[in-house]
Write a structure and sequence with these properties.
Largest sheet: 11 strands, mixed
Strand content: 15-25%
CATH topology of the largest domain: Dipeptide-binding Protein, domain 3
Number of domains: 3
CATH architecture of the largest domain: Roll
Distance between the termini: 25 Å
CATH superfamily of the largest domain: Dipeptide-binding Protein, Domain 3
Helix content: 25-40%
C-alpha cells in the first residue's frame, strides 16, 4: 500500500505491553487479478444464524456484524498486522488530552446518493448517544461528550476524559458511518410512534463496497456490488449469506457446490472437509471467548460460592481436547492471547469436586438444586451444556438444557430471564477494555454485554481506570487485577479461546478473515 503521509500519534496497538504510533493517508490498492469472464461472480455463504438487524448500531451480534462489514465503513480499520489504518478518515491527531480531530475522505457517497461529510459522522454518533435509541453499541462510545463539525471534511470528538483506546474503538463496526438522510428517516418513523431502527433495521445506507439488495429474515441476505464505490470496485457481483443451521447440511452444500463457504464448520468435521476434492478448511487464530454465564442476580447464582463450585468442576482441557478437538486453548479470564491487556500468568482454580461439594454445602445447597442452561443451536455450545449437565449431576444438581432461536435467545438473555447461558464474545478492538467493560461493568447489564448481571464496585473502578490511564504498563496492571477478581468471583466460567474454522471452496480466491472473525471479500473472486 502506497503511503503518502505519516503522522505519529499515541494510538495503542494491541500486542501485549506494546505501544504503536500510527496514522496515515493511503491510496487504495488495485487488485492485480484476471477474473474469469465465464464464471458467475456470485458468492454463496452458508452460515448458522441470520442477521438480527441491518442497523449497525441496532444490534450487538456477530451474524449482523459480518454482513454490515460489507455495507458500512468505519473511520479507521486494523490491517493484517493489527496496525490502525485510515478508511473513511484519511488522518487524525490528538489535539489535546480529550480532543481527537479526524480529516475525512472526500468524494465518497452513500448508497442513497448523499455525500459523505462530517454531518453524517456527527449524526451517526449523536444517534448512538441518544438514550431514546438505546443502542447496544453505546458502551463503545459513551465517553464522547460532543462531536464538532469543523468543516465538511473535518470532525472533532471531545471526550469526557482521556480515553486511551479511542481510535481503536472507532474501528469497531458499531461506529460505522450511516447516511444522515437515512438517520433522519428513522427518526421520522420514531416520531410516528415506531421503534428505533424501524427504517435502518431493514434499509442499509452505508458507503461500503457492497449494498443490500434483499433480506428475507430466517432465509438469506443478498448483497450486490456497489458500482459507485469510492475505491476500487469489488470483483464479486453479489454475495448471498444463506441461513443453514444444520452443520451437516452446510458441509453438504459446500461439497456439492451449492455454497462456496461454510461458516462455521465443527472441529469434528475437519477430516471430512480436509478430504474434499474441491474444498478445504480455512482456519486462523481468533479472539472469541466461549463462556458459560451465570445470572448473578438470581438464586442460587447470586452466591459466589455456588458459582465458584460449579466453575471448578468443569475441566477446560476436556472441553478443548474433546469438544473443540484441539482447535482452541483454555481460557483463564476474559482476555485472549494477542489482545492488549492479556496476562499470561493468569490461572484458573484446579478441578476439585470435593472442594465444590464443600462450597455448595456452605451455601446451603448440599443436596443440590435444579436449574436451566440456555443456548442457541450452536453444536459446540450444546455439547458444553451437556458436559456441564453430566458433571454437575454428580453434585446432585439437575440441569435442563433449553435451545432457543437466535433472536429470542439474545432478547431474553438481555432481559435477564435466564439462569445460565452459553455465548461467545469477540474482542473486536483487540483491546482489553472491549473484552471486559461491556461484559462486567455494572452499567452494562443486558444487551450491551453484561448478561451475567454481575456487579462489583472494585471491578467498575478498575474498568473505568483502564479506560483513562495513558500508560500502557499501568493499564496492563489494571487488567491483570480485573482478571484475577473475575476468575475468583466467577460471574462466568471461562471455557476457551477458539480458532475460526470455515469450509472454503477451492475456486474462492483472495479470501481472508480478520482476527475478529469478519470476512474480507473486497478482493475475492471465483475462479
Amino acid at each position: 500500500m502506497k503511503k503518502r503521509s505519516l503522522l505519529l500519534l499515541a494510538v495503542l496497538v494491541f500486542a501485549v505491553a506494546s505501544l504503536v504510533l500510527v496514522a496515515c493517508e493511503t491510496d487504495v490498492d488495485t487488485p492485480d487479478v484476471d477474473v474469469p469472464a465465464d464464471v458467475d461472480q456470485d458468492l454463496i455463504v452458508a452460515r448458522v444464524s441470520d442477521s438480527v438487524s441491518m442497523d449497525p448500531q441496532g444490534s450487538n451480534d456477530m451474524p449482523s456484524a459480518v454482513v454490515s462489514h460489507h455495507i458500512y465503513e468505519t473511520l479507521v480499520q486494523f490491517d493484517e498486522d493489527l496496525v490502525l489504518q485510515p478508511l473513511l478518515a484519511t488522518d487524525w491527531e490528538m489535539v489535546d488530552d480529550v480532543t481527537w480531530e479526524f480529516k475525512l475522505r472526500e468524494g465518497v457517497k452513500f448508497v442513497d446518493g448523499t455525500d459523505f461529510k462530517a454531518d453524517s459522522v456527527k449524526a451517526t454518533f449523536e444517534r448512538i448517544l441518544d438514550p431514546e435509541i438505546a443502542s447496544p453499541r453505546l458502551f463503545l462510545f459513551s465517553m464522547i461528550e460532543e462531536i464538532i463539525v469543523v468543516d465538511d471534511y473535518t470532525v472533532q470528538f471531545v471526550l469526557e476524559e482521556p480515553f486511551a483506546p479511542f481510535p481503536a474503538h472507532l474501528s469497531h463496526g458499531g461506529g460505522a458511518i450511516v447516511s444522515k438522510a437515512a438517520i433522519e428517516k428513522d427518526y421520522e418513523l420514531m416520531a410516528e410512534g415506531q421503534e428505533p431502527s424501524s427504517y435502518l433495521g431493514e434499509n442499509a445506507a452505508g458507503t461500503g463496497a457492497f449494498m443490500l439488495e434483499e433480506w428475507v429474515p430466517g432465509e438469506f441476505v443478498k448483497l450486490v456490488r456497489n458500482d459507485d464505490y469510492w475505491g476500487v470496485n469489488a470483483l464479486l457481483d453479489s454475495v448471498t449469506y444463506k441461513v443453514v443451521p444444520e452443520p451437516l447440511t452446510r458441509i453438504s452444500e459446500l461439497e456439492t457446490g451449492f455454497a462456496h463457504i461454510s461458516d462455521p464448520i465443527l472441529p469434528s468435521d475437519l477430516p471430512r472437509v480436509d478430504g474434499m476434492a474441491d474444498a478445504g478448511v480455512y482456519r486462523r487464530n481468533y479472539t472469541t471467548l466461549f463462556y458459560l454465564g451465570f445470572n448473578c442476580e438470581k438464586p442460587p447464582f447470586d452466591d459466589v460460592r455456588v458459582r465458584q463450585a460449579l466453575s471448578m468442576t468443569l475441566d477446560k482441557d476436556i472441553i478443548v481436547d474433546n469438544i473443540f478437538e484441539g482447535t482452541a486453548v483454555p481460557a483463564h479470564g476474559p482476555i485472549a492471547p494477542g489482545v492488549f491487556g492479556y496476562d499470561p500468568a493468569a490461572t484458573s482454580p484446579p478441578v476439585d469436586m470435593e472442594k465444590a461439594r464443600e462450597l455448595l454445602a456452605d451455601a446451603g445447597y448440599e443436596d443440590g438444586f435444579s436449574s436451566t442452561i440456555w443456548t442457541n443451536d450452536n453444536p459446540i455450545r450444546v455439547q458444553i451444556a451437556e458436559y456441564a449437565q453430566s458433571t454437575w449431576r454428580e453434585l446432585g444438581i439437575d440441569i435442563e438444557i433449553e435451545v432457543l432461536e437466535w433472536g429470542a435467545y439474545l432478547e431474553n438473555t438481555a432481559a435477564g430471564e435466564h439462569d445460565m447461558f452459553l455465548l461467545g464474545w469477540v474482542t473486536v478492538t483487540l483491546d482489553a477494555d472491549y473484552g471486559t467493560y461491556s461484559l462486567f461493568h455494572s452499567e452494562e447489564h443486558g444487551s450491551a454485554g453484561n448478561r451475567s448481571f454481575y456487579t462489583n464496585p472494585r471491578v467498575d473502578e478498575l474498568l473505568e481506570k483502564g479506560r483513562t490511564e495513558p500508560d500502557p504498563d499501568a493499564r496492563i496492571a489494571v487488567y491483570s487485577e480485573v482478571s484475577e477478581i473475575l476468575i475468583d468471583e466467577a460471574p462466568m466460567f471461562f471455557a476457551a479461546f477458539t480458532e475460526l474454522l470455515l469450509g472454503l471452496s477451492d475456486n474462492v480466491q483472495g479470501f481472508h478473515a480478520t482476527a475478529t472473525g469478519l470476512h474480507e471479500l473486497h478482493e475475492v473472486y471465483l475462479d
